[in-house]
Write a structure and sequence with these properties.
- The chain has 5 helices and 6 strands; from the N terminus they run H-H-H-H-E-E-H-E-E-E-E.
- The radius of gyration is 24 Å and the shape is globular.
- The chain folds into 2 domains: about 30 residues, no CATH class; about 120 residues, Nuclear Transport Factor 2, Chain: A, CATH 3.10.450.50.
- It has about 160 residues and is an alpha+beta fold.
- Strands 2-1-6-5-4-3 form a 6-stranded mixed β-sheet.
C-alpha cells in the first residue's frame, strides 16, 4: 500500500508541475554535469589567437579575447595605470592608427590551472615604426585567463612595460 501511495504522490506531483519547470530542472542538472574546465590547450589557443589578431590589427578579434570584466594594470618607470576592456582596446587601436610595420609576438610559461581559470606568465614583444623611428616594447605580465563560451579570455593582467 505504501508503495502505491508513493507512486501516486509522485504521479500527482509530476502532473501538478509544469513541463517548463521539469525541463528547467533537467537543464540545470545537465549544465552542471557539463561544466567546462580550463586546459593548457585552451591557454595555447588563446596565445595563438592573440598573436594572429594583433598582427592582423583586428580590434574585433582582440575584443573577443578580452573579458568584458577585464582589468589591465600597466607599470613603467614607477608609474602605473589601470585599463578596463574599452580603454585597452582604444589604446591599442590608437597605437595601430599612429604607426606602421606593427609586429606582435607572445609567449607563455608557468601556467597554473584551477577550475575555469589559468594564471600564467606572459611576455609580449611589440615593435612598430612611428615618425620614422623604430620602437620596441617588451611587456612581462602575470595574467589570469578565464573561460568564456568554451574559450580562454583575458580577465586580469599585471604588467611591466619596457621600451627599447
Amino acid at each position: 500500500m505504501k508503495l502505491l501511495w508513493g507512486k501516486g504522490l509522485l504521479a500527482l506531483l509530476i502532473k501538478g508541475t509544469s513541463l517548463a519547470a521539469i525541463v528547467a530542472v533537467a537543464s540545470t542538472v545537465s549544465v552542471s554535469a557539463q561544466a567546462a574546465t580550463m586546459t593548457e590547450a585552451l591557454v595555447q589557443n588563446y596565445v595563438a589567437a592573440m598573436k594572429s589578431s594583433a598582427n592582423s590589427q583586428s580590434i574585433n578579434q582582440v575584443a573577443r579575447l578580452v573579458s568584458d570584466d577585464a582589468l589591465i594594470s600597466l607599470s613603467r618607470k614607477g608609474k602605473s595605470t589601470s585599463l578596463d576592456k574599452d580603454a585597452y582596446l582604444k589604446l591599442l587601436q590608437n597605437s595601430w592608427n599612429d604607426t606602421s610595420n606593427y609586429n606582435y609576438d607572445i609567449s607563455v610559461d608557468n601556467i597554473v590551472i584551477t577550475g575555469t581559470q589559468a594564471k600564467a606568465n606572459v611576455t609580449t614583444n611589440e615593435s612598430w615604426v612611428k615618425n620614422g623611428q623604430k620602437v620596441s616594447f617588451v611587456t612581462t605580465s602575470r595574467v589570469t585567463l578565464t573561460l568564456s563560451t568554451g574559450n580562454a579570455v583575458l580577465l586580469r593582467a599585471v604588467s611591466q612595460v619596457t621600451i627599447n
